[in-house]
Design a protein that fits this description.
alpha/beta; Alkaline Phosphatase, subunit A; 2 domains; 8-stranded mixed β-sheet; two-stranded antiparallel ribbon; about 35% helix; disordered N terminus
Length: about 475
């Protein structure tokens, strides 16, 4: 242990130096013991990787439901009302950078919104006719109007929104949350994702959107669909009895333990062993959690299961409520599929596109917020809704749609300790750019982690000799929307 500058100035005072040296070493030992104890208290135990763990601070929420509007809704046609669009309809924007959208050179003049707007709630929140039912909950919602991203193409933008990085190879938010907190139900995964299973396909970022990357594989999202087989290969084959399967798992476990003794310290092997055990327990727990016939007719109607338009997304939203009710930490729902016509990507006709997808989601989202409130779950569940970026307030030449716009979009959050009825940040007069209290993707992630009791600067994982975190070297918690 090297001497401090103070010790250098005390040369000749042996007794004092000896005292300080001993005291310093003692403090160092205590500090190291404290760090080790803290790590033991909060770090994941590879033997029980999904066990609940302590938080960095008192949380505002214990679970998250993230509604991902795949394809990117237009902020100026939903929650960011801009009367100037009607006044300036048909005007060209001076010095517009044609590389902002994905289709360079196709940015036309300003286009008015085809949707009417009105105010809702005591907060006076403006919302278009697309989300009239969700807007009735505006006093429970906190709106961030000044979000921005860095990518103008779907896949890298979805990578950034889900992982903080615009390229593959990094863990998503749900994986980080499950790594940091574990799950409240040992018989279910900590992180579940649902996407459109009616032939529309996965989001453009595919499974990387819910991957764990360099985190242990047990923290990756488990895909669930809303038809009669929600989780692939979940049910036991008919010829296999419970006793036979238990013996099979016992043999696998003994072989894995023998392999573990030959290669000590391989935590990924421990995680694999635990995943076999979790899969076995899920065969009993998951079907019950995802069985919607147990719900009343009134609850099913609340989510729109009686309407063919929103039956699919409504089933997913109802499943999400049942999952967080049973201790699942993070549930992510995707509205829309892979192809441009199958998601919120309204390039050619924003009116037709957004009416379709809002028609599929408005009633289920409103039903989810109502149901969470009625069951006392809204205070402990953070609901997040956004796309990967926004859309330009201009018409895309050749149609009546809007191109991508990473410079401005709106995110809203509800429940989970946020301050309902608040509006943070602002875009310019026509909704082209975020100009007031700009909020990055890292800021959104820091805020989500904060509400779950996690400090985004302390939640790290050692990889390639570096302590990596979800927010990289940036991120600010948006305290202004927290209640």
């Amino acid at each position: 242990m090297s001497e401090s500058p103070i010790a250098h100035r005390m040369t000749g005072y042996a007794s004092r130096l000896d005292f300080l040296s001993r005291a310093g070493a003692g403090c160092g030992t205590l500090a190291m013991a404290s760090l080790l104890a803290e790590g033991a208290m909060t770090g994941p135990d590879p033997r029980v990787p999904l066990a609940p763990r302590s938080t960095h601070h008192r949380p505002g929420a214990t679970s998250v439901i993230w509604l991902f509007m795949h394809g990117a809704p237009s902020q100026v046609d939903t929650w960011d009302y801009k009367p100037a669009l009607a006044r300036r309809h048909g005007q060209a924007v001076k010095d517009f950078d044609q590389s902002t959208g994905f289709f360079a050179g196709l940015g036309g003049p300003i286009m008015r919104s085809p949707f009417s707007f009105r105010r809702y709630g005591d907060s006076g929140t403006w919302c278009s006719e697309l989300f009239t039912q969700t807007a009735r909950h505006s006093d429970d919602m906190a709106f961030i109007h000044s979000c921005f991203a860095h990518e103008n193409n779907h896949s890298p933008a979805q990578f950034q929104m889900n992982t903080g990085m615009a390229r593959m190879g990094f863990p998503c938010v749900g994986s980080w949350v499950t790594y940091g907190l574990g799950t409240g139900n040992r018989n279910l995964p900590g992180f579940i994702v649902m996407y459109d299973s009616r032939g529309r396909g996965t989001p453009k970022s595919r499974a990387s959107a819910w991957g764990s990357a360099f985190l242990p594989g047990v923290y990756q999202g488990t895909p669930v669909v809303s038809h009669d087989k929600p989780i692939a290969n979940l049910r036991r084959p008919g010829r296999l009895t419970d006793r036979m399967q238990r013996r099979q798992l016992g043999l696998i476990s003994r072989l894995n333990r023998r392999h573990e003794r030959r290669l000590p310290g391989r935590t990924e092997l421990e995680a694999r062993i635990r995943s076999f055990e979790l899969a076995y327990r899920m065969q009993m727990a998951a079907p019950e959690a995802l069985e919607l016939s147990q719900e009343t007719a009134a609850t099913r109607a609340l989510y729109g299961l009686d309407d063919p338009r929103c039956d699919h997304f409504g089933r997913q939203a109802l499943m999400a409520r049942r999952l967080v009710e049973r201790g699942v930490r993070f549930v992510q729902l995707y509205s829309g599929g892979f192809n441009n016509d199958d998601c919120w990507d309204g390039h050619s006709n924003i009116d037709r596109n957004h009416r379709q997808f809002a028609g599929e989601t408005d009633r289920p989202i409103a039903g989810l917020l109502t149901d969470l409130r009625q069951r006392g779950l809204l205070d402990s569940t953070l609901v997040v809704c956004c796309g990967e970026f926004g859309r330009l307030p201009l018409v895309q030449k050749g149609g009546t749609g809007r191109d991508h716009n990473p410079q401005a979009f709106t995110t809203w959050m509800a429940g989970g300790g946020v301050r309902g009825g608040t509006h943070y940040g602002a875009t310019d007069e026509i909704g082209m750019k975020a100009v007031e209290n700009r909020v990055s993707v890292h800021d959104l992630h820091a805020t989500i982690l904060h509400q779950l009791g996690l400090d985004h600067e302390q939640l790290t994982f050692r990889h390639n000799s570096r302590d990596i975190r979800l927010t990289d070297v940036a991120g600010r918690v948006i305290h202004e929307i927290i209640g």
